[in-house]
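Repro:
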Amino acid sequence: MDGGFAGLGLLHAAALPVGYLLGAIPFGLVLTRLAGLGDIRDIGSGNIGATNVLRTGHKALAALTLILDAGKGAVATLVLAWAGDANAGMIAGFAAVFGHNFPVWLKFRGGKGVATTLGVLLAVSWPMGVAACATWMLIAGTFRYSSLAALGALAFAPLYGWTFANSAVATMAAALGVLSVIRHHKNILRLLRGQETKIGQIPPPPNPDSNQQASR
């Protein structure tokens, strides 16, 4: 029994670096470079996520970025949950979002982690994830603000977690929501000032000294 607990403890500890390193893969940057579009950090908002990739005019590339960013969160969660338990999966999922937001390869300047977060939510509890995705689409379709849609979806995620899963899942969803608010603080200010860029619009070029800090 002690050996089992020790093994599980090691898996919980391993979930952090495994999730982080998987989440830190900057698919948006890699794909745009492979497509010959240059550095996505010099385009649009300067963000490495799917919304900014969409601003290049390549919808298929943006869709692939979205799928891969969500997929890395889901894979990290599912693999560690399978190898250990649900807690290991949630730890890995949170670490994957953190890795996307603060990737070591890009001097800790990453994205907002919205797609990766939704992938984690789907992997932890698919009804919760579907509800969060539906909330995102409803808000985005109504107001055309990606950041507002993300904040709204993650604000409701703990309630969905509590309804469809349990308190531990709700707590994890709340933690991911807090991380999202931190990463969206500039977007929140722009929303309050009426200056936020809508989906499909081209924002002013990013400040070279603050790449990857703008809206997803």
